[in-house]
Design goal:
The protein has 283 residues and is α+β, with helices and mostly antiparallel strands. The protein has a single domain, classed as paralog of FGE (formylglycine-generating enzyme), CATH 3.90.1580. The protein is built from four helices and 16 strands. The strands form six sheets. The protein has a four-stranded mixed β-sheet with strand order 15-14-12-16. The protein has a three-stranded mixed β-sheet with strand order 2-3-13, covered by helices on one side. A three-stranded antiparallel β-sheet has the order 5-7-6. The relative contact order is 0.22.
Length: 283
């Protein structure tokens, strides 16, 4: 029996998309803020869990991109101190190529997800995300749908719950606390992924739209948004090399990657897989 996340039905509507915050990343195409409208759609309250992805794999025999390639990128701080030296990412050397790292073994051969069934599945490429979505009777959200849902009805707030990172001294999301990339104090309760329903939901009932794991969108990445005003059901560029990802992850920190804001965006190639890349469904 398919086990897919609970879906939230949204009526759609108009909202102001993007960000012109002075701290935003203009080269990411966060701005200009633009009026966008989306039709009614449904979106999953949470990211897809390891348990849900396991059902998909068991029923279909699906093999992920990372499994086919034989490796994926793992954050170095999650590896043993005596882990053999492997290839890193230039300019982001905390990402290490780890052979046999995949969704079942997030930190490599000696790791497992037995105690992370309610955590988001990671090491999934865009192709893996699309395959899961089709099996589950859904699809990936457009970037506009994702941001409309993540804002939870708030106009131009930086975060799904407002503009302050913490409320009355309490953390509201799973991001990096401490000094990136050397010390994660886990003050928010987690050093790594957290359960998909951790922390409070936003005004629409969605959990963890800021932090935890990046979430794939269907759109090709572009910084050009067209001349139509308001934009209605935009679906991104017609072609490209990178797909849009939204939401940030447990590795985001103000000093390095302030992209856990709902108006922020980033991109990666559709065949890439990392230890902080997950899936949220729409339909």
């Amino acid at each position: 029996m398919k086990q897919i996340p609970q879906f939230i039905e949204l009526e759609g509507g108009s909202f102001r998309m993007g960000s012109e915050n002075p701290r935003s990343y203009q080269t990411d195409g966060e701005g200009p803020v633009r009026e966008v409208s989306v039709d009614a759609f449904s979106i999953s309250a949470t990211a897809v869990t390891n348990e849900e992805f396991s059902v998909f794999v068991n029923e279909t025999g699906y093999v992920t991109t990372a499994e086919k390639e034989g490796w994926s990128f793992v954050f170095s701080g999650h590896l043993p101190t005596d882990f053999p030296e492997t290839r890193g990412v230039v300019g982001a050397e905390w990402w290490r190529q780890v052979h046999n790292a995949d969704w079942k073994k997030p930190e490599g051969p000696n790791s497992h997800i037995d105690d992370r069934q309610s955590h988001p599945v990671v090491h999934v490429s865009w192709f893996d995300a699309v395959a899961f979505a089709e099996w589950a009777g859904g699809r990936l959200p457009t970037e506009a749908e994702w941001e409309f849902a993540a804002r939870g009805g708030l106009d131009q707030s930086e975060l799904p719950w407002g503009n302050s990172l913490m409320i009355e001294g309490e953390h509201q999301c799973n991001i990096w606390t401490g000094t990136f990339p050397t010390e994660d104090t886990a003050e928010d309760g987690y050093a790594g992924t957290c359960p998909v329903d951790a922390f409070k939901p936003n005004g629409f009932g969605l959990f963890n739209c800021s932090g935890n794991v990046w979430e794939w969108c269907n759109d090709w990445f572009s910084t050009q948004f067209g001349e139509e005003h308001p934009l209605k059901n935009p679906k991104g560029a017609q072609f490209g090399t990178h797909r849009v990802i939204k939401g940030g992850s447990f590795l985001c920190h103000d000093s390095y990657c302030h992209r856990y804001r709902v108006g922020a965006r980033s991109s990666t190639t559709p065949d890439s897989s990392t230890g902080h890349q997950g899936i949220r469904l729409a339909r």
